[in-house]
Design goal:
Helix content of chain B: over 70%
Number of helices of chain B: 12
CATH topology of chain B: MetI-like fold
Order of helices and strands of chain B: HHHHHHHHHHHH
CATH class of chain B: Mainly Alpha
Largest sheet of chain A: 10 strands, mixed
Order of helices and strands of chain A: HEHEHEHEHHEEEHHEHHHEHEEHHHHEHH
Strand content of chain A: 15-25%
Shape of chain B: flat
Number of strands of chain B: 0
CATH superfamily of chain B: MetI-like
CATH architecture of chain B: Orthogonal Bundle
Number of domains of chain A: 2
Strand content of chain B: under 5%
Oligomer: heterodimer
Largest sheet of chain B: none
Number of helices of chain A: 18
Radius of gyration of chain A: 22 Å
């Protein structure tokens, strides 16, 4: 695998070697290379560059090269390829669910080995606990939250009024969601759409949590795909279309769903908070944002990217990386990042900054993702995470398209996942 | 040094630049892939060990591979013959003396100019249920909307239609070029003998176009195995692998599952398949083709 990525990265490595050579790093300075992904729209590379420039001003002895590396998948491939090619890369923002893969590749160090002072240790505990779940395993902390999200429900208040429903009372339970969805469905539009391409396992994590169950254990070695409550969650998802007729049959495309919502073809949609700014900009109707409805409890998985520190770096570089991460996740920067993107502030302190307090007062939907955090759970992440995720995705899609019953589909996925994870137990 | 020996050295020196590039970027990786397919996937914690044929056995037992293989064959059957037929029809049409034929030629060729990712994004909105072009036309005619890409029964066909639309214009250019070089005297002679248009096409034009057809056929087939870009935009191989094609599956295995060894194994399978197809085509069809 590494040999392969080496080949892929060769060109990129040549270019960055050239650039590095030209910059001519001064002896006394610590040079850091940071890879980061952008998974939502907008000119966000400028925001990151601005934050990095501020950091360099504050720390003249550290030199940071921030490299935008595409989406989450690209960022992971590029950063790991640079490492194997012997290129400098000390830290990276990558998918929060990459933790197990990165540990297995022996690519990252736990933060516990890098933090030294009590102050640093307190910093490590300053984040929302739900955002730390995906980064904690084997008793250590491997990832620190940076660009994080949850799933929220966007709803069209105009369509609610037209259907005779209270536009300030979005559904809060599964029964209400089904009932209201049915009422809201007309020949012209549907009541609810939950996307089932791209990240079906993510949406399903929410439904399972709402039914009182998680999809895996905290060590990434056991999955719970065939537990009765999980099967029931998938049956409910399917029922929204076949039983209640509130959702179109078949899979629903992640990429075009926002357009469907903006054109009034669905009264409600489940989507990442990352879409908030885009919906706010383009909606021609009055819309609301609500927490996802619950069944046994409320729930949504978290999502997004964490900071990781690579093992292949000197102690000075690790210390400098820690400094940079502390800078980027400080309350003021986190607030700035949240306003620019729609991602949530990563610590309670970020919501106490003036910038974010003012923004939330002016635009209350910006706080929904945060309020939902207390019901949040980790995003699906295990060893062999890509394969396990795909097993679940395929099972969900086969149930939603009617090719298999929810029970058959999830039983199959579970037994295959067990076979994959057996060597890790 | 004998002159013989010198020309021998010259020959190798002339071949060297191309040879280095080919060896470095084609043959060495190909051999490396075969070697990698015989080992297990190594991580730092679990080092790679010799696996022999285990990876190939895994391919045979892999239900997703079977589905993907079936899809790939269907995709080739569903895109190559229609694209070639359409290309030939379009070429015959714009080869005639119709008014404004430059415009028509350009129109037929346009899909080829567009980048695949852009095309896929446009078609994504054609197929989108409710707000998509297809459903809006259907709505006007009173036809019920359909979740084209979200239904396992229609998703692969949707991608085939888009591919045929995209590829036909490209192949048309080859046919058009070939048609322009056909000697008019043969056709005139046939006309004097009283042959109808269909007979002329069947007995003269089509046989003379056979070298082009072979060329186009090989290219179309190879393309159909190499084409994965629209999947990233349209379906990501879903729903439930209904549109997953071999090359996309290899990409997934390599870069999303981090299983380099299995990806290498699948690559060897794909390479063998492609080499087999190319050889068969050259060996079998070549003998039946009339070259001038």
């Amino acid at each position: 695998m590494f040999a392969e990525m080496k080949r892929v990265a060769f060109g990129a490595a040549c270019v960055s070697a050239l650039v590095g050579g030209m910059v001519g790093v001064a002896e006394a300075k610590t040079a850091l290379t940071l890879y980061y992904p952008i998974a939502v729209g907008g000119p966000l590379t400028q925001v990151v560059d601005g934050m990095v420039a501020d950091f360099e001003t504050a720390n003249p002895d550290i030199d940071v090269t921030a490299i935008y590396a595409g989406n989450y998948n690209d960022a992971r491939v590029k950063a790991l390829a640079a490492l194997t090619a012997g290129e400098p890369a000390q830290l990276s923002v990558m998918f929060s669910i990459d933790t197990y893969d990165l540990i297995e590749q022996d690519a990252i160090v736990p933060f516990d080995d890098v933090v030294k002072t009590d102050e640093d240790k307190a910093w490590l505990d300053s984040f929302y606990p739900a955002l730390m779940e995906n980064g904690r395993t084997l008793g250590k902390t491997w990832g620190v939250p940076f660009q994080r999200s949850t799933i929220v429900m966007y709803y069209n208040k105009d369509l609610f009024k037209a259907a005779g429903l209270d536009p300030n009372h979005p559904p809060t339970s599964w029964d209400e969601l089904a009932e209201m969805g049915k009422t809201l469905t007309t020949g012209d539009h549907y009541g609810i759409m939950i996307p089932s391409t791209g990240y079906p396992y993510w949406m399903f994590g929410a439904l399972a949590k709402q039914n009182g169950e998680t999809l895996m254990d905290g060590d990434g070695k056991v999955t719970y795909f065939d537990k009765p409550a999980v099967v029931e969650a998938l049956r409910y998802w399917r029922d929204l279309s076949v039983k209640y007729g509130a959702m179109p049959e078949g899979t629903i495309e992640w990429g075009t769903l926002r357009q469907n919502f903006l054109e009034g073809k669905t009264a409600m949609m489940w989507h990442s908070t990352g879409n908030l700014t885009a919906v706010k900009k383009d909606a021609t109707f009055d819309f609301g944002v609500a927490m996802l409805p619950g069944n046994k409890m409320a729930g949504s998985p978290t999502g997004g990217g964490n900071f990781y520190i690579f093992k292949k770096s000197t102690d000075e570089e690790k210390a400098a990386s820690l400094k940079l991460i502390q800078f980027m996740t400080a309350p003021e920067r986190s607030a700035q990042w949240s306003i620019a993107t729609g991602y949530m502030g990563v610590s309670p302190a970020s919501y106490e900054t003036k910038a974010l307090t003012d923004y939330v007062a002016e635009f209350p939907p910006a706080a929904v993702a945060r309020d939902q955090l207390k019901y949040a759970t980790a995003e699906l992440s295990t060893y062999q995470t890509g394969r396990v995720r795909k097993l679940l995705d395929d099972a969900i899609q086969s149930a939603l398209t009617g090719a298999a019953t929810p029970e058959e589909a999830l039983k199959g996925a579970q037994s295959q996942a067990e076979a994959l994870l057996k060597p890790y137990l | 040094m004998s002159p013989d020996r010198r020309s021998w050295i010259h020959a190798w020196l002339l071949l060297m630049p191309a040879a280095i590039v080919l060896i470095g970027f084609t043959y060495y990786p190909a051999v490396g892939t075969v070697v990698e397919s015989l080992w297990t996937n190594g991580t730092v914690i679990r080092p790679s060990k010799f696996a022999g044929w285990d990876n190939y056995a895994q391919v045979l037992g892999d239900p997703v591979f079977r589905k993907v293989f079936r899809n790939t064959v269907l995709f080739a059957l569903g895109t190559v013959p229609p694209a070639i037929t359409l290309a030939l029809l379009m070429a015959l049409w714009v080869n005639g003396g119709l008014a404004g034929r430059a415009l028509v030629r350009l129109a037929y060729f346009t899909p080829t100019i567009l980048p695949m990712i852009a095309v896929a994004n446009i078609w994504l909105f054609f197929y989108t249920p409710g707000i998509g072009l297809l459903d809006q036309i259907g709505h006007g005619l009173g036809v019920e909307g359909h979740n084209w890409l979200g239904d396992a029964d229609t998703a692969l066909a949707c991608i085939m239609v888009m591919t045929v639309w995209k590829e036909a214009g490209f192949f048309m250019i080859f046919y058009l070029a070939a048609l322009q070089t056909l000697p008019p005297d043969l056709i005139e002679a046939a006309r004097l003998e009283g042959a109808g248009r269909w007979t002329i096409f069947r007995r003269i034009t089509f046989p003379l176009l056979m070298p082009t057809t072979l060329f186009v056929l090989i290219n179309a087939l190879l393309n159909s195995f190499k084409l994965v870009d629209p999947l990233f935009v349209l379906t990501k191989g879903g729903p439930d692998n209904a549109t997953n094609l071999l090359l996309y599956y290899i990409y997934e295995t390599g870069f999303s599952f981090f299983d380099g060894a299995y990806a290498a194994t699948l690559t060897v399978v794909l390479l063998t398949l492609l080499a087999g197809i190319a050889l068969t085509q050259f060996a079998v069809l070549d003998r039946r083709i009339h070259y001038r």
